[in-house]
């Protein structure tokens, strides 16, 4: 494979990788990295500065310097692009060939093709995911399971619209060096998909669409907008062709929703309420601030907690004021085709979650599994009927203050030994799976991904470092957690039997201790985890 000037690919080049990593594509990636790499690093450093202020006792508020943007009632985002008018059901998931076909065929309006929370950024997952997307658009994708079950796409007009979620700004792609430096994982995922699939999508009457994860400020949204403009110009695609839905899934971003929409207004496809990373962000940003920012154990926190309601209500209000879609989040309950009771509970929980969202004015929502598509559709059908969305529901009565968004201590629930054990158990099982190359997994009938695992390990860090006592009066210490790690690992070993040794539990324990116990808190568990990957 001929290279591109200044670009070195250090990952293995398996079958067909040359179809994605072409000299033209690599040159395009290099141009994005050269233009935006330094700004990305500056913005990541600014996250640290803001976080240090919070650790020192500071707070978050709506920005005074952008009050004009918030108060100006005249501007609106672009009208929805083809394929994004009606988003009442969106399925999310990894981009391996089987999941790609299943997601596109699922009956959902949109498929979020995930290179972030549901994905281990193993080199093979990244490049083969891009091949899946391209092959899906060419309709050359197929798959045969080891049992001989064949998979093929339904006709185009029955397929979900593809929306790609690249990695967040914090992640590198270490297998592609530009002028000797690792390139941004975000730019790698974004750029390869745009380079290969923008024209293919336009030929089908749709476009290159993205979900943007883990953004912490409108300046990060501005960076994405500048990336879009340069990329569209370079590929001779009209500006405004790319559309992006931003996940509001960090607490600082909740104070900048208007500004984020404004920065991306010609490319915007709305906002999504990414509840799991949002909870992680609340814990992370205020992790050293004692009782005022202490949440109950993970499974006790619901979307009706006052600070979560404030966030979702403000999101719908802000989106609809600007003509943008407001998309709901993920209920973690997954159905089972083998256990009727598990299925019943999952359907009931998801139904309740989608009923609340559709009633609040969201225009659609996420599901994690094809069997949940009909439920989400039925609930949104009940509110939307034949209308593609409810962007006209302005929710002008919603008033949310900074204090409402920060009312973390008003969340009902407690911290128990069961909650502590669950965080350890799920954290270990998830990390072992992630290190094995699978970033989305069902554990105890709940969907676990990078965002939910971040909550588990960060709660433990917070409880140890804030002298928290459990409901039974036991203090959470490093020693106690070490003991629970041993005990929970023993249970996992027993339940897996011979399969235990096939999985990466030794590595998972070491990483879990690093990210849950070490005084020096890791900003993302996926960053040290990535360094342990080939
Ligand atoms: C916080 C956030 O960011 S949420 C968004 C990120 N997270 C995700 O996207 C998770 C998506 N969901 C998944 O990955 C999966 O549903 C899991 C891992 C939770 C469970 O998967 P499984 O254990 O395979 O579930 P199950 O065995 O019930 O699957 C039944 C069928 O549905 C398919 N399926 C399940 N989930 C999905 C999905 N999200 N997309 C496409 N197909 C799916 C399976 O491949 C399987 O297909 P098959 O019958 O042809 O073999
Ligand atoms: O990405 C979604 C989330 O909830 O996190
Ligand atoms: Mg997320």
TrEMBL record:
InterPro entries: Malate_synth_C_sf, Malate_synth_sf, Malate_synthA, Malate_synthase_CS, Malate_synthase_TIM, MS_C, MS_N, MS_N_TIM-barrel_dom. Residues 5-67 form the Malate synthase N-terminal domain. The keyword NAD does not apply. Keywords: Acyltransferase, Glyoxylate bypass, Transferase, Tricarboxylic acid cycle. The keyword Transmembrane helix does not apply. GO terms for molecular function: malate synthase activity. Residues 414-532 form the Malate synthase C-terminal domain. Its EC number is 2.3.3.9. Residues 161-407 form the Malate synthase TIM barrel domain. Pathway: Carbohydrate metabolism; glyoxylate cycle; (S)-malate from isocitrate: step 2/2. It comes from the Bacteria. It catalyses: glyoxylate + acetyl-CoA + H2O = (S)-malate + CoA + H(+). Gene3D superfamilies: Malate synthase, domain 3 (3.20.20.360), Malate synthase, domain III (1.20.1220.12). It holds the Pfam family MS_TIM-barrel. Belongs to the malate synthase family. NCBIfam families: malate_syn_A. This is Malate synthase. It comes from Actinomadura alba.
């Amino acid at each position: 494979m001929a290279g591109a000037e200044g670009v070195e690919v250090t990952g293995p080049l398996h079958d067909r990788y040359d179809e994605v990593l072409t000299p033209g594509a690599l040159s395009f990636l290099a141009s994005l990295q050269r233009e935006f790499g330094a700004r990305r690093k500056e913005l990541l450093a600014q996250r640290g500065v803001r976080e240090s202020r919070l650790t020192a006792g500071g707070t978050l508020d709506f920005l005074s310097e952008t009050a004009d943007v918030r108060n100006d009632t005249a501007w609106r985002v672009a009208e929805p692009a083809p394929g994004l008018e009606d988003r009442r059901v969106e399925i999310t998931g990894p981009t391996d060939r089987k999941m790609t076909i299943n997601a596109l065929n699922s009956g959902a309006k949109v498929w979020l093709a995930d290179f972030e929370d549901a994905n281990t950024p193993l080199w093979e997952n990244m490049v083969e995911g891009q091949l899946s997307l391209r092959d899906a658009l060419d309709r050359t994708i197929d798959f045969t399971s080891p049992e001989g079950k064949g998979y093929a796409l339904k006709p185009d007009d029955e397929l979900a619209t593809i929306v790609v979620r690249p990695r967040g700004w914090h992640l590198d792609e270490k297998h592609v060096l530009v002028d000797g430096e690792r390139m941004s994982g975000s730019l790698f995922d974004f750029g390869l998909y745009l380079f290969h699939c923008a024209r293919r999508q336009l030929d089908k009457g749709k476009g290159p669409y993205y979900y943007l994860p883990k953004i912490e400020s409108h300046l990060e949204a501005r960076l994405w907008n500048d990336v879009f403009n340069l990329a569209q110009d370079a590929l001779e695609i009209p500006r405004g062709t790319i559309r992006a839905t931003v996940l509001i899934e960090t607490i600082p971003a909740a104070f900048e929703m208007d500004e984020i929409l404004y920065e991306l207004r010609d490319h915007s496809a709305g906002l999504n309420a990414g509840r799991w990373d949002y909870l992680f962000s609340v814990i992370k940003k205020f992790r050293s601030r004692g009782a005022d920012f202490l949440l109950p154990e993970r499974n006790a926190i619901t979307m009706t907690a006052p600070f979560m309601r404030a966030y979702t209500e403000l999101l719908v209000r802000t989106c609809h004021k600007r003509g943008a879609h407001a998309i709901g989040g993920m209920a973690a309950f997954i159905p089972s085709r083998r256990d009727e009771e598990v299925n019943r509970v999952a359907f009931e929980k998801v139904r309740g979650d989608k009923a609340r969202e559709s009633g609040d004015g969201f225009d659609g929502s996420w599901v994690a599994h094809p069997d949940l598509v009909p439920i989400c559709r039925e609930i949104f059908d009940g509110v939307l009927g034949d209308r593609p969305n409810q962007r006209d529901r302005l929710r002008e009565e919603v008033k949310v203050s900074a204090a409402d968004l920060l009312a973390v201590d008003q969340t009902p629930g407690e911290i128990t030994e069961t909650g502590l054990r669950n965080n350890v158990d799920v954290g270990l099982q998830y990390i072992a799976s992630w290190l094995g190359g699978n970033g989305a997994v069902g554990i105890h009938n709940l969907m676990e991904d990078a965002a939910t695992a971040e909550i588990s390990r960060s709660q433990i860090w917070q409880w140890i470092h804030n002298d928290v006592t459990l409901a039974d009066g036991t203090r959470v210490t490093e020693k106690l957690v070490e003991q629970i790690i041993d005990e929970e690992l023993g249970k996992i070993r027993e339940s897996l039997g011979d399969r235990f040794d096939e999985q990466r539990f030794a590595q998972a324990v070491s990483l879990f201790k690093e990210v849950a116990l070490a005084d020096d808190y890791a900003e993302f568990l996926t960053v040290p985890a990535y360094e342990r990957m080939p």
